[in-house]
Amino acid sequence: MFYREAGQFKTSYEADQQVFPILQDKIGIGAILIIGLVVVPLTGSDFMITSIMIPFLIFSLATIGLNILTGYAGQLSLGSGAFMGVGAYACYKLTTIFPDANLVVLVLLSGFFSAAIGMVFGLPSLRIKGLYLAVTTLAAQFFLEWCFIRVPWLYNYNASGAIEVPERTGFGGIILSGPAASPLTRYFLVLGLVILITIIMKNIVRGRVGRSWMMIRDMDIAAELIGVRPLVAKLSAFAVSSYVCGVAGALMVFSWLGAAEPAAFSINLSFQILFMAILGGLGSLVGSFMGAAFIWILPVLIRFGMPAVGIDIAAETVEHTTRMIVGALIIFFLIVEPHGLVRLWQIAKEKLRVWPFPYV
Amino acid sequence: MNAATETAVAAEATGEPEVMLKVENVSLSFGGVRAITNISFDIRKGEIRAIIGPNGAGKTSMLNVINGFYHPQEGVITFKGAARSKMRPYEAASQGIARTFQNVALFKGMSTLDNIMSGRTLLMKKHFFWHLFHYGPARTEEIEHRRKVEEIIDFLEIQHIRRAPVGRLPYGLQKRVELGRALAMEPELLLLDEPMAGMNLEEKEDMSRFILDVNSQFGTTIALIEHDMGVVMDLSDRVVVLDYGKKIADGTPEEVQANQDVIDAYLGVSH
Ligand SMILES: Nc1ncnc2c1ncn2[C@@H]1O[C@H](COP(=O)(O)OP(=O)(O)OP(=O)(O)O)[C@@H](O)[C@H]1O
Ligand SMILES: [Mg+2]
After folding, report:
1. Are A236 and A292 contained in the same domain?
2. DSSP 8-state code for residue B196
3. Do both A200 and A280 map to the same domain?
4. Burial of B111 (0-12, 13-18, 19+ CB in 10 A)
5. A232 and A96 belong to one structural domain
6. What DSSP letter does each residue of A122-145 carry, written as one string?
7. Domain boundary among A234, A265, A296
8. What is the per-residue pLDDT for A19?
């Protein structure tokens, strides 16, 4: 009813190519930004910020990373957990080598390490596709996990075999990581990077490079005959995707967990990210946020929502219920709506656009 | 055969337009299957050259050889004066060869606009850094190409489906979008593989008009595979006829139509 583009005329291609060409969408995104930047920090409890918002943002970022590769470029990957691990370990080593550097810079740099590793493991994609490629990324997952355990240099020969986040400062002495970093500082650091990277990713996918990924995804032969070089397109997708996953991995350890064992980057993490991408919608950045929100926030809602309506529920039951719901939904979406939650959202918007008429 | 030689001789004598593409003694086989046997012909700059023949004659294979998708075992192809025995599809595209496919090969998950934009890939500069911020030269360039693409959309009269995902379009429109995507490459040589297959009369007339307009307005040289004889006779300047991978005739539509081998091939006389 209120979601209308009638009367909003575009007089230049520039205006027509905006990310949010419709006024209502602009208002909506503005509202979300205000909630994220002002309302949550002002009203959210420490629990809300550290256990819900920060992980939700980090998972959204990782899901965006996987979505670049699987959703946009059509290359199925089961190695996102390990690529996140590469980012985390790279960041850990960087903070060791450059203790005085600004943490944000190091986090952004660590993504390049996982980008490089991602490209190496992306090489098989030039020959194989689909399930077979998934198997080689699985090999990457296990190989990298093995490295995290067997190469003590990576965790500075720590007796526990885990990485523990040191205290690091930036921006004129603000403590950004370690036990003394305040939840709000960590939240703003994560939020800032997520916003920055999301904008950059949106710019990439709507331009020439993003189109070349989608061309390879939809019809690789035609793409090649039009002049896309499969080598360049696929490896750049692996690089960008792994970069984003790497940054997400670094944030996961430095801004959320505070410490991590190799098991944190296991195949389970890869699957969790994949489920978020599928549920939210492959090939959509907004969907990445929806998928991450759904899978991360649903258990919290069940846990605190059920007692609120008078039903007592044990912790294990929460976990089992979430698994069942998420599992069922994944099957539902794979069969009925492969484009995920975001597609349902788009359909709703299309209906609103033409309301009260059922057809255009 | 005879007719072809005569035409070629006549061409040299009268100083006809230069040859854009020359195929010499090309043979292509897949394992034991001979798809093309020792075929030679040429395409002159600015003409519409039809390639016809019964099913399985090797027409599509011929186009695939021309744009580098298949590599012939024997023979030489000369494009714009440069001879080659094989090249990558990427090189063919960058030298100005575009094509459409017998079974529509659009990017199903993308809109009409993005599909046609994708044809601009090679004409775009890199500007990767600027793309990250959608700013400066990257933005200017994107808008410049959008303008070109809109011209093509206007030309093909598909403004109304600009935003539609191509997977949802009817077949006839998909073929039109595919032509648009090929035109967006601003090719010198356009290869069309059965652009009118499965269309009704009205759609065929539209498509014929577009092909003629592309040829006359943009000066694009066209190689056209088509089964509808009426269309071939009306549109093409010269026709080459293939049967079982061999060339059986080459010449003007009238010459080819009168050729006994061609009549036999189409009526299925036993060899
Ligand atoms: N990739 C391939 N592998 C094996 N055989 C092939 C391949 N491509 C074509 N052929 C064979 O080559 C021969 C010529 O096929 P082609 O597709 O070029 O014929 P066509 O003239 O385009 O026919 P149609 O009118 O049916 O499109 C056929 O016998 C076909 O089976
Ligand atoms: Mg064919």
Report:
1. no
2. T
3. no
4. middle
5. yes
6. HGGGGT--HHHHHHHHHHHHHHHH
7. A265
8. 78
A212 to chain B, any CB pair closer than 8 A? The answer is yes
Beta bridge partners of B193: B225
Q: Structural domain boundaries of chain B?
A: 1-96+234-271
pLDDT over 70 at A179, yes or no: yes
> Do residue A116 and residue A75 come from a single domain?
yes
Are residue A252 and residue A332 in the same domain, yes or no?
no
Indicate the average pLDDT of chain A.
90
Query: What would the pLDDT profile of B222-234 be if each residue is shown by its tens digit?
Result: 999 998 888 999 9
Q: Same structural domain for residues A110 and A201?
A: yes
What's the Cα-to-Cα distance from A250 to each of A153, A198, A236, rounded to whole Å? 17, 16, 21
- Secondary structure E strands in A108-267: 163-164, 168-170, 174-177, 259-260
Top-ranked range on mean pLDDT: pick from A181-190, A349-358, B259-268: A181-190
A123 belongs to a structural domain: yes
Burial of A287 (0-12, 13-18, 19+ CB in 10 A): buried
| pLDDT of residue B12 exceeding 80 | no
A21 occurs within a structural domain: no
Give the three-class secondary structure for A309: coil
Whether chain A has a CB inside 8 Å of the CB on B30: the answer is: no
Candidates A240, A249, A243, A248; CA nearest to A204 is A240
Ligand nearest to the CA of B54: 1
Structure tokens at A8: 């909003």
d(CA B36, CA B34): 6
B58 lines ligand 1 (CB under 6 A): yes
Number of domains in chain A: 2
Does the Cβ of B37 fall within 6 Å of ligand 1? no
Q: According to the CATH classification, is domain B1-96+234-271 in 3.40.50.300?
A: yes
Same domain for A100 and A148?
Answer: yes
Q: What is the pLDDT of residues A50-101, one digit of tens each?
A: 999 999 999 999 999 999 999 999 999 999 999 999 999 999 999 999 999 9
Segments forming the whole domain that contains residue A188: 65-265
Which ligand has its closest atom nearest to the C-alpha of B66? 1
Whether B10 shows a pLDDT value over 70: the answer reads no
Mean pLDDT of A310-317: 78
Ligand 2 mean position to B63 CA, how many Å? 9
Average pLDDT over residues A33-47: 91
Asked whether B64 lines ligand 1 (CB < 6 A), one says no
The pTM is what? 0.89
